[in-house]
Amino acid sequence: xxxxxxxxxxxxxxxxxxxxxxxxxxxxxxxxxxxxxxxxxxxxxxxxxxxxxxxxxxxxxxxxxxxxxxxxxxxxxxxxxxxxxxxxxxxxxxxxxxxxxxxxxxxxxxxxxxxxxxxxxxxxxxxxxxxxxxxxxxxxxxxxxxxxxxxxxxxxxxxxxxxxxxxxxxxxxxxxxxxxxxxxxxxxxxxxxxxxxxxxxxxxxxxxxxxxxxxxxxxxxxxxxxxxxxxxxxxxxxxxxxxxxxxxxxxxxxxxxxxxxxxxxxxxxxxxxxxxxxxxxx
Length: 282
Ligand code: CAA
Hints:
8 strands, globular, 8-stranded mixed β-sheet, 46% helix, alpha/beta, binds acetoacetyl-coenzyme A
């Protein structure tokens, strides 16, 4: 019986996962590298739930109950007694592995660990834990409270029981799951990121302006956001790391990250979270 959920990382994915888990009735602990960041994640959850109350998606009582089920902090000791811990730290393999190594001694033998990685192989991350059979990929989409999908990715050693528990948890969150094999980018990012990368090439080669490219895809292909706006929303640093994983993992030049994407990341213009990407949000 899964009741206590841990979430590592209070950024846009972590706080979204904590948000939906608390609303679904789970006890949730969310951590980040320091208390200030963890508290900032909690503030984001409060603001997003408040918006849901105003739009009458949830009741005021559900909001208050969910906030009462959430705790935040900066130490792994908070995960004591957790049934499922979801790692949602930055998309850097060495960082995720270090976190997983630090996490394991704090967990009971039955606890399951999931990673929200958007592209790093599950089998490789599992090898940094003491429980590869109880390790699985649960890839949430951004913004988590709105998007219906969770990709479930089994590593080579993931047990059927672990998969069933992750699936039942996804169901209780009110989300649908799609099962993907452990190949670079899984399903969503294998398809979505080359589209975004191609949009950046389209800009780089002067085929269209930022506005023209986004308008073309919004109105011409019925996408809710244009690809460059979506890249800013995901984070250009995350887009670049996913393209690098596809490029290296599939060894095909068609996945070469656009030099303009690399340049923006080098400039620190990584999108909405810093106020500047293909658009200026300041
Ligand atoms: N929390 C709670 N509710 C939120 C929210 C959040 N963080 N963000 C948006 N919403 C709600 C709004 O309140 C609004 O609710 P109603 O429909 O009840 O009015 C609804 O979502 C739509 O929001 P807005 O009206 O503010 O704006 P919008 O209509 O432009 O929609 C969007 C925003 C849902 C983000 C939409 O533009 C969209 O679907 N964009 C594409 C998102 C996408 O493709 N995500 C996947 C990215 S890929 C990924 O995540 C994987 C990866 O590894 C990179």
